[in-house]
Amino acid sequence: MKIRFFYLLLPLLPILMFGQESKIVYPHSVFWHKTEINEFFNENWGVGADFVYRSKNELNSGSMFDSHLRTSFRPWMNYQFTKNARLSISPIGYMYTNEYVGKPEDFSRLPYHELRTTFQFFHHYKHDNGEWMHTWRYRYELRWQEQPQTDDYRFFTRFRFRYRIRYMINTNDFYENHTLYAAVSNEMGLNIGKNVVYNTFNQNRLYVGLGYRFLDVARVELRYVDRFRTRGATGIEFDHGRGLMVGLYIDQLSGLWKSNDQPVRFSD
């Protein structure tokens, strides 16, 4: 009961942490897309890649598709310890970002590049014969973020923790074809390093959505996303993005052209 209560509190942590302080929150309407592809060569080793595109409105007016927010690409190397635990490393990922526009001064904010090295570990737990699936993910990022005003790069790190629960609606196996499932997740990020000012708390992400497995190894997900994030170094300004996310996930690329069930189809 105590554990369940803790997870129910996770989406409220930003409010609890900052509710007593004077703050300025800029709302935004956003659209996120992610495509993720994995291929495992045996029971342990595999590779993968993900592509992300995000857009936003400006000054909280207009469509969530109006303006570019972020484009990114990351390759991954995966090592599967067991069928329920995986270590993943992205040696170098590339991000291009146009920041949020919450006030007129933001139009002068220049876009910037970022390079990122990521270490990630996650593990699953299932109960009720697989009908419920819990996932804990721990991610540590090394980030080199361009400072466009000076043509220099700022280095800092970030730790992210995410808990997600899935419920299988029409089966009791997440990897069974034609499985329809619901999912809720919450993730918190903490910035770390001497270049971090005021905003040690970086952001909180809440997802609620539905997913569907097809062609045995592919999934599509539709989510509502709610992201609360600090901005700059003032310590009192925050961006609150809410909107839709569409995700396409291929758990085993070679399975798309093989009629047999694949022996390895692990996924985050």
Provide key terms for this protein:
268 residues, mainly beta, 11-stranded mixed barrel, 60% strand, globular
Low-pLDDT windows of residues: none
C-alpha termini separation: 25 Å
Q: Please state the CA-atom Rg, rounded to the nearest Å.
A: 19 Å
Structural class: mainly beta
Number of helices: 2
Estimated share of beta-strand residues: over 45%
Task: Label the overall shape.
Answer: globular
Secondary-structure element string:
HHEEEEEEEEEEE
Percent range of helical residues? under 10%
Look at the structure and give the mean pLDDT: 89
Major sheet: arrangement of strands: 1-2-3-4-5-6-7-8-9-10-11
Report on the structure:
The chain is mainly beta and 268 residues long. It is 5% helix and 60% strand. The chain has helices spanning 2-9, 13-18, and strands at residues 24-40, 45-56, 67-82, 85-97, 112-127, 132-147, 152-168, 180-192, 201-214, 218-230, 237-250. The chain has an eleven-stranded mixed beta barrel. The longest helix has 8 residues, at 2-9. The two termini are 25 Å apart.
